[in-house]
Structures are given as C-alpha cells and as structure tokens.
Write a structure and sequence with these properties.
Layout: H1 2-23, H2 46-79, H3 95-123, E1 131-138, E2 141-148, E3 155-158, H4 164-167, E4 185-188, E5 193-199, E6 204-208, E7 213-217, E8 223-227, E9 233-239, E10 251-257, H5 259-276, H6 286-300, H7 302-305, H8 323-326, H9 329-338, H10 352-363, H11 377-384
Parallel strand pairs: 1-5, 4-10
Antiparallel strand pairs: 1-2, 2-3, 5-8, 6-7, 6-9, 9-10
Helix pairs in contact: 2-3, 6-10, 10-11
Length: 385
Amino acid sequence: MNYAKRLFHSLMAAAGLLVAGSSFAVNDMVGGPAVHELNFQAPVTAIAADIYQLHVWMIVICVAIFIAVFGVMFYSILKHRKSLGYKAATFHESTAVEIAWTIVPFLIVVLMALPATKTVVAMKDTSNADITIKATGMQWKWGYDYIKGEGEGISFLSALSTPRDQVEANAPRGDNYLLEVDNALVVPVNKKIRIVTTASDVIHAWGVPAFGVKQDAIPGFVRDTWFKAEKVGVYRGNCYELCGKEHAFMPIVVNVVSEQDYAKWVGEQKKTMAAKAEDPNKVWTATELAARGEKVYAANCVACHQANGAGVPGAFPALAGSQVVNGAQDGQIGILLNGKNGMPAWKATLSDTEIAAVITYTRNSFGNKPEDNIVQPAEVLAARK
C-alpha cells in the first residue's frame, strides 16, 4: 500500500513538472535548432544533404547488425538451452567461420567508407568559389572580410546581440537567445562561398549545421571550407571550439538572400563604410570621444573588463585604478594597437578614432583621473607608424 502511494505521488510530481515545463516552452528558432529536435537540422546545401543521408545510412547498417547479432544470440539461448536437453558443442576452430567474420566486416566497412570518402573529398574542394570571405575568430566575436568577389573590401565585426539582462536572467529570454548577432554575414543564394578561417588569439571554430560546415580557426594558420546555400533564409551556428569564459556567447548568423538583395546590400555597405571614413586629423572634444568610446567599450571590451571596469581577477585586469590607464598615453595606445599577454591587438579591427575614443572613455570612467585624459585620433595614427 505504501509503495502504491509513493508511486502515485511520484507520477503526480512528474505530471506537475511537465505542466510547469510547458509554461516555459519556447518557439522553434528561425534558422537554428527546433524545440525537442532529435535529428540534424534540415540541410540547405548539397554537402549537408549528403551528410544527412550518410547519417541515415550508417544508422540503418548499425541497426541491421544489431538485429542480426542479437537475433542469433537470443535464438541460440532460447532454442538450445540446457532445459530442452541440448548439450554444448565442443570444437576448437572453424576455418569457414574465421574467413566469414573477416570478409563480412571488411565488406561492411567498405560499404560505409565509399560514400563517406566521396562526401569528405567534396567538402574539401574550395576551388572556383564565387565569393571568398575571411572569418577571424577573436574573444568573443567574429570579424568578416570580403576579400574576393562581389562585395570585395567590405569588413565588419559580428558580436552577440542578446541583451545582458537576458544573459543574467533579469529579463525574459527570447527565442533566439545566445544565437543572435548585431551584424549577420550576408551571402547570395546558389553561389559558392569560400570561408577562410583564422584567429587572433586562441583556437575557435566556425560552423553552421544547416550548411554541413565546421572548420577550426587557428592563430597563425589559415584553413578554409565552403558552402552553397540553396534556400533563402537565416541560418545560425556557433563557435564549436572551447575558447574561454564567453565561448557560449560567440554565435554565427548567416543571412542568405537573393542575388538582387545581395547587390543592394553590398551597395549599402559600401556607402556606410565611406560615410564612416573619418579624418584622423580631426580634433574631438572630450565629451564627443567619451560618448563614442562608451559604445566601442560596450561592443568590444565589456566581456573581459566588465561594465564597471573591475575585470576578472586572475584572468582580465581591472581598468578601474589601473596604472596603465592612469599612466602615460603611449603605454595604453601601444597595448590597444599591438596587444599584450591575453589582450588581443586591435589595430586591424578598430579605427584610429575608435581606439582614441575608447582610451578617452576609460581614462574618464571607473574613477580614473589621469593628467592626460584625452587621446586624439592623430596620436593613435602616429603610434601606428
């Protein structure tokens, strides 16, 4: 009776958890994983479709082997058990059996290896690409440079856009939680896109499941992969190599558009880049630089040095009260341009104005009060030479 009561209460508790769980259910993510998804994401490239078919084929072979082996085993156990009067056979070897269990596994491996090898070879063929894009992994964002094809010369950073309030559980989380960015990679449909990967600090990995693509991004090395999306839409991936404390906050979003929309986007991007091209000799006020620097800090620095400038003890130094921030300007400029220890170099990522702005912001925030509290873009430009 007590057992029945415990079982009843356990079932009721489980039902309560299911009901409670349904109230926190989210919707399927556009271009990403679906709720309760157990299989691969729907493929949108030929390579991803091949990988999916290989997955199904391998499962079929494994299930067939499982059924055959365990079927013979259980049949033998049931039909030849001692209670039915059977006696165990005594033999030492069988040449026929040994040949069979050598040849059969070999043929199975060949059947599995042939289509897999064909797919792997196709995955490595990055020749004749319509557009080549360099993807640079950095803690914790991606930098994209269009280096060949339509859109050549376009470059931008792509960082997580999920609000920190959601990350810290102070606000309801959206359907695209941790898989949304401020600037998505944009490519045209039905065009071969070559992705050249590298990194500026530690090993990262660029991948999008719907494309069947994953490639390591290694500092000092250049690797490449490719995809040819056959369907317009938004597709999401992530960094697939553990790269530090913000590893989970390094998503990838690819927006596949029509050729007409891509040409329009390229034109808009080039106009935007031309508008952002600033005269490094312009003299800014402290207020202007600090306001600009606050935005640069929020987009590039807050993950390590924290919103209050306190940093992370033992990992990332505090800016509040820092001798570098409160010391000579040249030291801080040099660190931002060239990097130091775990600090990446920003000279290829940020403009002279952005570096001057973020330095000015840090020198006038977090309780810092150095004598030289303003850095002009011209000073950063001079330090580059």
